[in-house]
TrEMBL record:
The lineage of its organism: Bacteria, Pseudomonadati, Pseudomonadota, Alphaproteobacteria, Acetobacterales. Residues 110-184 form the Aminopeptidase N-like N-terminal domain. It comes from Roseomonas acroporae. InterPro entries: Aminopeptidase_N-like_N (IPR045357), Aminopeptidase_N-like_N_sf (IPR042097), PepN_Ig-like_sf (IPR038438), Peptidase_M1 (IPR001930), Peptidase_M1_dom (IPR014782), Peptidase_M1_pepN (IPR012779), Peptidase_M1_pepN_C (IPR024601), Peptidase_M1_pepN_C_sf (IPR037144). Residues 1-20 are annotated as: Disordered. Belongs to the peptidase M1 family. GO terms for molecular function: alanyl aminopeptidase activity; metallopeptidase activity; zinc ion binding. NCBIfam families: pepN_proteo (TIGR02414). This is Aminopeptidase N. Residues 259-469 form the Peptidase M1 membrane alanine aminopeptidase domain. The gene is pepN.
Length: 915
């Protein structure tokens, strides 16, 4: 047949429209099997597909109506040929829609469709679909990238069995990977099971992969190129031998050990904790530098950002090591929560993401310090999710509509979603939760399901009614819980009154009360746990933590037989993602020093410090610089001194407790933020504490000197964290710069070197210039380390230096020869770190910070809309700023919105921010 050459690049003039959750319809057609055949070429890759399809008996079609047409999603594909049941389709028998879809009006109930398209991986800067990076081929299909590879019903509830044949140049592409298990590579064309007939040209070779598990197309993956493997083996509980491999570029083999260890630990943990085993003969991980997110859970072939694979003590920090452990686990855990049981539609995204984040959090808690892991997760939730819940993009864990689904891979869907799963775990208890998981897999293996199905399994397994609880999935916004209490010594009764309210969010002006699990205890004046007997109970539980459920707008909890006036310890372990209000400072100080729950101890210290900082900000606004001259709050200084004195018991925890709440967190506690005052106050307080505690800080620093070999166990990480927390303070005192310089020069691992460099970057000293130059010279050819060099400077704020000078330096990094706007890691290192990690400069009153971010978004959007849209977020928070900042932020947003042909994602973020 004659070649058809029709390009279906998306129509950029159309106004983007929203997709609504309530409009869900089952797919009209199902795909039972799909055979894919790739002829790889950077400029023109041919993709042949053979789809075995049938009409879905469940699809709604009113009687008498004509059978619905076949519609296959497609985007930026050049259609080469089309056959239905072996017959070539002439142009009058199909059409290409403006959005790129292929429509065939007349098809039988069962048929085989053969399609050939051409795509251009080397020209694909979006990093969605099939693209090249460093001369190798990679795919990214979630959420809707498969339609950029071939025509297909690109929705997660169409699950098909995939066979993939890859043909490529043997010399430049020796490694050919896809999902499932490899079958033998064939010598003759068209002789392998499921393989499409074709010719094998000279110098080319091929491999065939068969994935026995039905899956949605967003889990498809192909990786091909000149890669080397670091190999491992794992024997599952039932005796299956799994060949593990991590595929990297030559030269990176010595940086895969931690990822491989983390993978094996994850596989073991999922067997032990959830009884879940791996289900293929191979598990491959491929790592690349050009990637829109952290990693992707494609069946049997996870694809990773190098940031979450590669680590060596001299190149990666402890935080990097911990990130690798968590992300490797996360993607591995998706094999069951996401792949074996997947999402019916993208509104259910948290079904897999919230649950899988909960699972990776629990895994990391079991691998290291549970307490430190928990408070870090909470800090992350507050840094990203709370602002989202309070801003223009606020949405429920299960959103109701979207314009671009890529915009909904959010802290709300991931982190708050994990908190919702955690609350269920708290409410029904660990054993019932495990039973619920078993039931979920028993009912839904190989299905695409909803959040309702998950909650139903938990409810049926536990016998606890979760119907009211499910409101957590539907209602956006962060609930506020207010505490008041009273104690009557004559009756020995203690009454705790809790009130809840949730602020309005876009589209949800009025909120209902939700069931909030409040894990709590009562402490006497010496910090001992009191028994917790609620009025009407006739037995007294052993002293310790119990979980109250606040379900109404206001509820009284009356405790009997309370022998002493108690201090309530609330939200132990952070049992619900809410804001707790109404705790007076004396109680916070008491809890910070005495509570038995480590989370509440840390939290109370942070809340106390926040109160001190807010007071100082108010005084600074009233009295100017003079407000900063006073010595630091005595309570805070004493608490810090106590932390240092007791640090040896748990250095990692002490390091966390020594850190003052960040500037963004403090800003979030104010009705209207004042970034400049917050920065001034925080720095003054840090300097005051450094002066007051100089001796114990120095003792701690010296006592923690790094002498042994580098180890990445929890104890060693904790010691480094504490030592570097001390350095952060010591740097502000006399001799601080020299101390940091010495650590920079002598540091034997990236954690210590980078901590010292960060300290130097915040000074205006020759040491700063020298250290940055030395670091660049040493690491200029190492992308992940060079990212750190960009990030440190983007977050730097030098005392006494004029804002325009700092901003000009940061802007100059954008034109640095090593800056590459096509690489998302580099963009995040510069622009992302700047906007999130340098609040005082980002919110420069002249607007230069906002203009810089807008310039980056405008330059990036035509190349990579997904990453550009993500960069818009900080500008959306303009309602929380005073003039002139708010107007300048709106101006930056309006300038982006005026750009013709904006990507759907950036359009959605910007238009919602301005609405
Ligand atoms: N599902 C992936 C995860 O959570 C994340 C993901 C979604 C992603 N969309 C992506 C990764 C696009 C890379 C690119 O693990
Ligand atoms: Zn995930």
């Amino acid at each position: 047949m004659a070649d058809i050459q029709r390009d279906n690049s998306p129509d950029t003039t159309a106004v983007p429209h929203a997709v609504h959750r309530g409009d869900y319809q089952p797919p009209t057609f199902l795909v039972d099997a799909v055979a894919l055949h790739f002829e790889l070429d950077p400029a023109a890759t041919l993709v042949r597909s053979r789809l075995v399809m049938r009409r879905n008996p469940l699809a709604r079609e009113s009687a008498g109506e004509r059978a619905a047409p076949l519609r296959l999603d497609g985007e930026s594909l050049t259609l080469r040929s089309l056959r239905l049941d072996g017959e070539a389709l002439t142009a009058d028998l199909y059409r290409l829609e403006p959005d790129g879809a292929l429509v065939i009006p007349e098809v039988p109930d069962h048929f085989v469709l053969e399609v050939e398209v051409e795509i251009a991986p080397a020209a694909n800067t979006e990093l969605s679909g099939l693209y090249t990076s460093g001369g190798n081929y990679y795919t990214q299909c979630e959420a809707e990238g498969f339609r950029r590879i071939t025509f297909f019903p690109d929705r997660p509830d169409v699950m098909a069995r995939f066979t993939t044949t890859i043909v490529a140049d043997r010399a430049s592409c020796p490694i050919l990977l896809s999902n499932g298990n490899p079958t033998e590579a064939g010598d003759l064309p068209g002789e392998l099971p499921g393989e499409l007939p074709g010719e094998l040209a000279a110098g080319r070779h091929r491999a065939v992969w068969v994935d026995p598990h039905p899956k949605p197309c967003y889990l498809f993956a192909l990786v091909a190129g000149d890669l080397v493997a670091v190999r491992g083996r794992f024997t599952t509980r039932s005796g299956r031998e799994v060949a593990l491999a991590i595929w990297v570029r030559r030269g990176d083999e010595d940086r895969c050990g931690h990822a491989m260890r983390s993978l094996k630990e994850s596989m073991r943990w999922d067997e032990e904790v959830f009884g879940l085993e791996y289900d293929l003969d191979v598990f491959n991980i491929a790592a690349l530098s050009d990637f829109n997110m952290g990693a992707m859970e494609n069946k049997g072939l996870n694809v990773f950002n190098t940031k979450y694979v590669l680590a060596r003590p001299d190149t990666a920090t402890d935080a990097d090591y911990q990130g690798i452990e968590t992300v490797i686990a996360h993607e591995y855990f998706h094999n069951w929560t996401g792949n074996r049981v997947t999402c019916r539609d993208w509104f259910q995204l948290s079904l897999k993401e919230g649950l899988t984040v909960f699972r990776d959090q629990e895994f990391s808690a079991d691998m290291g310090s549970r307490a430190v892991k928990r408070l870090r997760d909470v800090r992350g939730l507050r840094a990203a999710q709370f602002p989202e819940d309070a801003g223009p993009m606020a949405h429920p864990v299960r959103p109701d509509s979207y314009i671009e689904i890529d915009n909904f891979y959010t802290p709300t869907v991931y982190q708050k979603g994990a908190e919702v799963v955690r609350m269920m775990h708290t409410l029904i208890g660990a054993p019932a939760f495990r039973k619920g998981m078993d039931l979920y897999f028993e009912r839904h293996d190989n299905q695409a399901v909803t959040i309702e199905d998950f909650a139903q399994a938990m409810q049926d397994a536990s016998g606890i009614d979760l119907s009211h609880f499910k409101l957590w999935y539907a209602q956006a916004g962060t609930p506020e819980v207010t505490v008041s209490d009273s104690y009557d010594p004559s009756t020995r009764r203690y009454v705790l009154t809790l009130r809840q309210s949730t602020p309005p969010t876009p589209g949800q002006p009025v909120k209902r009360p939700m069931p909030i699990p409040v894990a709590m205890g009562l402490l006497d004046g010496e910090g001992r746990e009191l028994p917790l007997r609620l009025a009407g109970e006739n037995t007294t539980p052993a002293p310790g933590t119990r979980v109250l459920v606040l379900e109404e707008a206001e509820q009284r909890f009356e405790f009997e037989a309370v022998d002493a006036p108690p201090v309530p310890s609330l939200l132990r372990g952070y049992s619900a993602p809410v804001k707790l209000l109404g705790m007076p400072p004396e109680r916070l100080r008491f809890l910070a020093a005495h509570d038995t729950d480590p989370f509440v101890r840390w939290e109370s210290g942070q809340q106390y410090a926040t109160g001190v900082m807010l007071d100082l900000v108010a005084r600074h606004q009233r009295d100017g610089e003079a407000a900063l001259a006073a010595p630091p709050d005595a309570g805070l200084a004493e608490a810090m001194a106590a932390t240092l004195a007791g640090a040896a018991a748990d250095p990692a925890f002490a390091a966390e407790a020594l850190l003052l709440p960040g500037e963004n967190f403090v800003a979030d506690q104010m009705p209207v933020a004042d970034p400049a005052a917050i920065h001034a106050v925080r720095e003054a307080l840090r300097a005051g504490l450094a002066a007051r505690l100089a001796a114990p800080l120095r003792d701690a620093y010296d006592g923690l000197a790094d002498d042994g070999p580098y180890r990445i166990d929890g104890a060693s990480i904790g010691r480094r964290a504490l030592r570097n927390a001390c350095l952060g303070y010591l740097a502000l005192g006399p001799g601080g710069v020299a101390l940091a310089r010495a650590q920079f020069d002598g540091g034997r691992n990236m954690t210590d070197v980078l901590a010292a460099l960060a300290v130097l970057a915040d000074t205006d000293s020759p040491e700063r210039t020298e250290a940055l130059a030395a670091f660049h010279a040493r690491w200029r050819d190492d992308p992940l380390v060079l990212d750190k060099w960009f990030a440190i400077q983007a977050m730097a704020r030098r005392p006494g230096r004029a804002a325009p000078d700092d901003l000009a330096d940061i802007r100059a990094l954008y034109t640095h020869p090593d800056f590459d706007i096509r690489n998302p890691n580099r963009v995040r290192s510069l622009a992302g770190s700047f906007a999130a990690g340098n609040p005082d400069r980002f919110h420069d009153a002249g607007g230069a910070g906002y203009r810089f971010l807008a310039d980056v978004v405008i330059a990036l959007d035509p190349l990579n809309g997904q990453t550009a849209a993500r960069m818009v977020t900080p500008l959306g928070a303009w309602r929380r700023q005073a003039e002139p900042r708010a107007a300048l932020m709106r101006e930056a947003l309006a300038r982006i919105l005026a750009v013709p042909g904006l990507s759907r994602g950036t359009y959605e973020k910007v238009s919602k921010a301005l609405a």
